[in-house]
Structures are given as structure tokens and as C-alpha cells.
Amino acid sequence: MTESLIRQRVEDWAKAIRERDVNGVMSLYAPNIVSFDLDPPLRYAGTENKRQAWEKFFAAHAGAITYDVRELNIATDVDLAFVHSLNHVGGRLAAGRDIDIWVRWTACFRRINGAWLIAHDHVSIPADLQHGSAVLDLKP
Length: 140
Prior knowledge:
Layout: H1 2-18, H2 22-26, E1 29-36, E2 44-45, H3 47-59, E3 61-76, E4 80-93, E5 98-112, E6 115-124, E7 127-128, E8 133-134
Parallel strand pairs: 1-6
Antiparallel strand pairs: 1-2, 3-4, 4-5, 5-6, 7-8
């Protein structure tokens, strides 16, 4: 039952991203979220900083945003859950360039006042350490 609740929360979150619904996106985060995201800084702490990151993400895109969660794995305990997935992000940037990338997503949920909320998440892209660049063309 817990796994299905979390799976539904993640599906609703991805839908909110596709719909550019910042309030829907933010409904998944705990007030004291600590997030390691793709964009600087090294971490976002608190929902206001996370909201600004999502607003920046939405502003960077012109038109539709593709966001799909694939291979979602969920492990649960009484008040904690750990999830990881490969997420596909696509669309046209406001700067005129198309993106079509896969990111790795890991999140730790806590049950807070009966609701499963993300207390920590981490988004990453593989890196070519020899050349100091992100590897953006990998697919699952």
C-alpha cells in the first residue's frame, strides 16, 4: 500500500512538471527539503529555494516539456522510503535548442503528518571525467 501511494505521488509530480504547475510540483517536497540538483548551487535547502529552481527550469523552456519517470524503484520502511529512477526530460529551450536527455533521480521520502514528502533528492547526469564534460546522449 505504501509503495502504491508513493508511486502515485511521483506520477502526479511528473504530470505537474509536464503541465508547468509549480504548486503541484512543490506539493511533493517537505518544508526542509535538501536537494542536489543539476543547476548551481551545490545544494538547495528549503522549499523557497527549490521553488525558485523549478521556476527557473520552467522559464528556460519554450513550449511543451516532456518529463517521464522510468524504472521507478521504491523501498519502504515505516516512515521512510527510498526511490530511484531514470527520468527522461525533453523540450525546446527558450534559447532555441532542443533537449532530449536522461537524468538519474534519487529521493528520500519521509512520512510527515501522514503525507509522504521528499526530504532529500538528487538529480545527476553521468560525466566523462577524462574530458570534464557531461554525457548527455546515454539512453536506458
